[in-house]
Structures are given as C-alpha cells and as structure tokens.
Specification:
The chain is an all-beta fold. The chain has two domains: about 280 residues, 5 Propeller (Tachylectin-2, Chain A); about 190 residues, Jelly Rolls, CATH 2.60.120. Helices cover about 0% and strands about 50% of the residues.
Length: about 500
C-alpha cells in the first residue's frame, strides 16, 4: 500500500486552507509578521507541494509598520475558486483588518486588497446556489458580502460557536448535497485544539452540532503530533475527501517544545450518516491517488535569478534597495536598514526551518565595514546569531531581555563560510531541551565550532506567539554580499 508522510508541508506553515481546480490543488497559510505575505503552494496529489508564489507580495498590498508585534500581521487566510477567479481573504492584525484579493492565475498578479468592515479574524468565503457570497468569521458569525466592493449586505449574524470550549475560530462553510456544513476550531490553538462541526439547511442556520464532536482532537493523548486543529476540507477529483490542518511536533522533556512552528498535515475523511469522520493525525497514512509530483526547490540558492525565490521572507517588509541581485551578479547584496537584530527594521532575508535535523550554510563577503551574519530567529527577542565584523566572528545570544556574546573567533578578510547545524534531542532525559544549535566557521585551520546552544529558548513555549524558526542572512551595518545559501535535512 502506498503511504505518505506527515506533515505534508513541514515548518512554520500554519492555518492551511485549500481548494481544488480540476486536477490541481492550491493551498495558502498564515504568514503573520513576514513579508511577502501568504505563501501559496501547488500540488497534484495533496502530498507533494511546491511554493509557486506569495499572495501579498507588493508593499501596496501589505505594509506592516514596525509597531506590529511579532505574531501580528496576516492571520488565517482562506483560498477559494469561484466564477473563474481565485479569491483569498484574510485579516491583517494591527494594519487594516479583513481584506480580500483576487487573481486569474494562482501565481498572480493578485489584486490590491478590498477591505471588509467585519469584526474578528479567520475569515472564510462560500457561495450559495444563487451566487451570493457568504463570509464567516471567528466568533462565530456569518455575513453576506459583495466580494467586488467589500460591502456587507447582511449581518453579521451570530451562528453556532462550538461545544463551549474556548476560542471558537477558523470557520469554514461548505455546501455538500442539501446541507451546509460549518467546520470550526475550538479549544485554543495549543494542546486543547480540536475540530468540530455543525450543519444547517441555510448559511443563516439553525445549526445542528455533529453528534461526534470534536471530529478530531489530540488533547490528552501521547501522540507525537499535537495541537491538531484549524482544518479545511477538500474533495479530490476521484470523489475522495481530505482535510488539511495544523499540528505541532514537540520534542524534549516535559512540557516539551515545538520549534518549527505549527505545520500543515493531511488526513483522509469519510462521510458516515451525513457527517465527516476522521481518525487521528498520524505521521504516516495511506496515500491519495498518485499524480505526477511537483519538484521541491533546490537545496542551494546561488542567487542567479532575476528575483528572490518565493520562500525567502523578511520581518514586516523589505524596503526598496535593501536586497539586490544585480549589484553584484550571482550574489545577494544586503544593505543595513537598522542597527540591531534586537529591534524591528533591520535587514534580514531568511527561510523557514522545516526539519528537526538540518544544516544551513552561507558564503558571506562582509567587506571592510559591514556587520553581517547568519541567524536562527524566532523574533527580535529570541534569536541566535553568528556575526562577522572587523575580522572577528562572534556568537550572540538573545533570550528575552538578555543579550550576550558567548564566543568569538578571528576570521581573515574576504569571504567566509558560516554554518549552523541543528540536531533534535534523542531519548529525552529530565530537563533536556528539544535540540541543539551549533554554529561553525570554515577557516584555514579547518572547521571551528565556537558555540553549541540549547534550542529550547527559540521555541514558542519560551517566546510565545504563533510562528516558528526562520534561518537567514542579516546586515546591521554597511553592506554585505552572500554568494550562496544552502539548506538541507540531515539524517
């Protein structure tokens, strides 16, 4: 029997939403404070996904000011296809509220946002048999809107808000046969997370809760995948049903730590007596129908393209001129826009950590007056940096209010290779963390490892928030060039 491995999109890719157009599937995720916003993926089989772009990739679509906190920004988008257009609706927390964008092709270009005056987060879109557009919001409410103008035509109307658990959110409406189904998350997005459902003959209700609620939850279990919830249903061309949802994979000792963020998982769905039924999320499941898989991105980026690949992200924005692929062809040149990685506004370009065991490396040419390096970052108050300046490479640790240089080593003038090796903890003992983060420098003496650090301090359980680690390049003084960046799983 063919099987697939979960998560299907590893690393910080939470709050997935999916739609099918013909034989193709398209999926979007939350991006929070990162720019470009809303990564968009394509698949032919629901298992193999390739990022083909970002929905909010222009400053006029997404302009997050420095006072948007870590884990603010873009929450829980929904993607739908209707009447020849892709629609993505989301809430930008701290910078505008709920908005809707459209495109004829998933790769874009996507329209400028249409803003919608509805309270709440986690917006959803559905169309009834008369072509009327309904928008559900966390809380849970439902309203009829004009998706072209954003005008609210009816509501918002209170609707079914779950079984009584905290934080009813992530609503999705579906018309299946003669019924409307409302899928929600409840119990909070941490260990109490779950998926529940109700149905009605109309989007206005009244709603009948599913007799088996919650349809899915891992709370109180010892399963390796935790925090399961925020699901979205999709029907494949062969008639089978599937759900994408988020989950975490904690490591280390009690209370355990998840460092990759909330990831995208896939589970099969059956319909029994008019209700969706699904089992627990496992790390290996029977696979859906085979299709030609899309190709993953290469392990190494040599920065030879006309623009950065879509998986590269920056905190809040990427000011014009701070990142160039043409100033020094074949290199990524970064110019400082802020003088500290501890504060918003600095120049950083990174990619999500997607594996518990991995290695990232970069060839850096700092020049004579730059301060630049390689960072493992959760937010401004939680990051580890390997920084080069003035002929010295130093390891800087920022944990909450504490910032400290913990190691240093001289490096010669000119390009230098910096690397970080991250290894998950095996056979966790009392007080053990989830992993170790070891920096290294290639020198004339060979490989030098100036520091090996406990990874628990770059976890959501320590830092708070909704994101995961990002590995990347930064400059806080002058200009520096990066010849290549490689990332690969290990083991």
């Amino acid at each position: 029997m063919r099987t697939y491995d979960n998560p299907v999109i590893p690393g910080f890719h939470p709050d997935p939403s999916v739609c099918r157009v013909g034989d193709d599937f398209y999926l979007v995720c939350s991006s929070f404070e990162d720019f470009p916003g809303i990564p968009l993926f394509h698949s032919r089989d629901l298992v193999h996904w390739r990022q083909v772009g970002n929905v909010l990739d222009r400053p006029e679509q997404l302009a997050l000011p420095d006072d948007v906190p870590a884990s603010g920004g873009v929450y829980a988008p929904t993607i739908r296809y209707h009447d020849g257009l892709f629609h993505v609706i989301t809430t930008v927390v701290g910078a505008g509220g709920t908005c809707l964008v459209t495109a004829e092709r998933p790769e874009g270009p996507w329209s400028d946002p249409v803003w919608i005056d509805l309270p709440g987060i986690d917006p959803d879109l559905a169309w009834d048999e008369d072509g009327r557009c309904w928008c559900a919001m966390a809380g849970v409410t439902v309203a009829r809107i004009d998706p072209r103008t954003g005008e609210v035509l009816e509501g918002p109307l209170p609707t079914w808000s779950g079984t009584g658990l905290r934080d009813p959110e992530a609503p999705h409406l579906y018309r299946v046969g003669d019924w409307w189904y409302l899928l929600i998350a409840e119990g909070g997005t941490a260990l109490g997370h779950g998926v529940s459902a109700a149905r009605a003959r109309s989007p206005r209700g009244p709603w009948e809760p599913a007799p088996g609620n919650p349809l899915l939850s891992h709370r109180g279990t010892g399963l390796p995948v935790q925090c399961t919830g925020h699901g979205d249903l999709v029907r494949a061309a062969d008639g089978s049903w599937w759900m994408v949802l988020l989950g975490t994979r904690p490591r280390g000792c009690f209370p355990e730590f998840h460092v990759l963020g909330r990831e995208t998982f896939l589970v099969p769905v059956e319909w029994v007596d008019g209700w969706p039924r699904l089992g627990p999320v496992r790390e290996r499941h029977p696979a859906p129908a085979a299709r030609a898989p899309v190709q993953p991105p290469p392990a190494r980026d040599d920065f030879t393209g006309p623009e950065l690949a879509p998986h590269w992200i920056s905190p809040r924005r990427r000011p014009e001129g701070c990142a160039s692929l043409t100033e020094r062809p074949g290199w990524l040149t970064l110019a400082a826009t802020g003088d500290s990685t501890d504060l918003p506004g600095h120049t950083f370009v990174g990619r999500r950590q997607q594996h518990h065991d991995c290695r990232a490396a970069v060839l850096l040419d700092p020049g004579p007056s730059a301060r630049a390096g390689l960072s493992v970052r959760l937010d401004e108050a939680h990051h580890y940096d390997l920084e080069v300046a003035g002929g010295v490479a130093c390891v800087i640790v920022r944990i909450g209010p504490v910032r400290q240089r913990v190691a240093e080593h001289p490096v010669p003038a000119g390009p230098v290779t910096l690397a970080v090796d991250i290894r998950a903890t095996r056979n966790a003992r009392p007080l053990s963390g989830p992993d170790t983060v070891a920096f290294s420098i290639e020198t004339s003496e060979g490989l030098v490892r100036p520091a090996e650090l406990d990874g628990r301090y770059l976890s959501t359980e320590v830092a708070g928030g909704f994101t995961g680690r990002v590995l990347g390049m930064y400059v806080t003084e002058g200009r520096a060039a990066f010849d290549w960046f490689s990332y690969e799983p290990v083991g």
